[in-house]
Amino acid sequence: MSQTDESLIWNIKNGEMDDVQSVYQNSNRDVNEWVGGRTPLHYAADFGQLKMIKFLVDIGADVNSEDKYNITPLLAAIWEGHTECVEFLLEKGANSQGITPNGQSYVDAAEKDEIKKLLKITYK
């Protein structure tokens, strides 16, 4: 992985909006391009960076993309317990009926009751 890619991941994880916006506004870089086997949206979801998630989705990030482990940004947010991120991704069309790599439904994979409720609402 290049130094540029490592820097991008670090900036996403730490919510460095100006730096991340600069990368995408000053280049032809694809927001859905894998960086270290995942998309930028996966990293933002993992670390609960809601503002970053909103920016990435606004510039075209695919909310249903899968990383090299077949994990979606929604599942990353579910596993990490980031309720607001889960809610936003669902509002933007993330598939709530996914299956984890070990065969669980997303509802069963959620530990937080608030997240389970959000996922159950979208099943109807």
From TrEMBL:
One of its GO terms (biological process) is protein K6-linked ubiquitination. Keywords: ANK repeat, Repeat. Pfam families: Ank_2 (PF12796). GO terms for cellular component: BRCA1-A complex; BRCA1-BARD1 complex. The keyword Repeat applies. GO terms for molecular function: ubiquitin-protein transferase activity. SMART domains: ANK. ANK repeats lie at residues 36-68, 69-95. This is Myotrophin-like. It comes from Drosophila albomicans.
